[in-house]
Design brief:
The chain is of the alpha+beta class and 120 residues long. Helix content is 51%, strand content 22%. The protein is built from three helices and five strands; from the N terminus they run αβαββββα. The protein has a three-stranded antiparallel beta sheet. The longest helix is centred in the first third of the chain and has 49 residues.
Length: 120
């Protein structure tokens, strides 16, 4: 009986450790893309801080192409990958929330919407 319990504990420990290692490897693999999302978000924040009259009354979207065009973002290149993206700026009571979205060949932010890049 004790052997079965110890075997069960060993399996649980191995599963937890295995899933932790997989999760950490996945996060490390995508870290550059997370940094790119942060970079486009910071560019949008800088743009709206310098042009507060452009803040939306409810919600707006600014694309990476627009941020590059007006010199608030240098580029959207990551290693050998050319990416596209946008930031959704939403007014929430008295402050603004920024939600960055990025699409690259090997990575895409969850809920990325291609049609937004075509509309804006």
């Amino acid at each position: 009986m004790k052997k079965i319990v110890y075997t069960g504990y060993a399996i649980v420990i191995i599963l937890v450790l295995g899933l932790t290692v997989i999760g950490l490897n996945l996060k490390a693999k995508n870290q550059d893309y997370y940094d790119l999302e942060k970079r486009i978000e910071e560019s949008a924040k800088l743009y709206y801080s310098q042009f507060p009259d452009k803040f939306p009354s409810k919600e707006t979207t600014i694309t990476s192409d627009k941020l590059i065009e007006i010199n608030f973002l240098k580029n959207m290149k990551l290693l050998n990958d050319e990416c596209k993206g946008y930031v959704v700026v939403t007014k929430v009571y008295m402050y603004y929330e920024y939600a960055p979205y990025v699409k690259c060949k090997n990575y895409e932010t969850k809920d990325f919407n291609d049609s937004i890049l075509k509309e804006v």
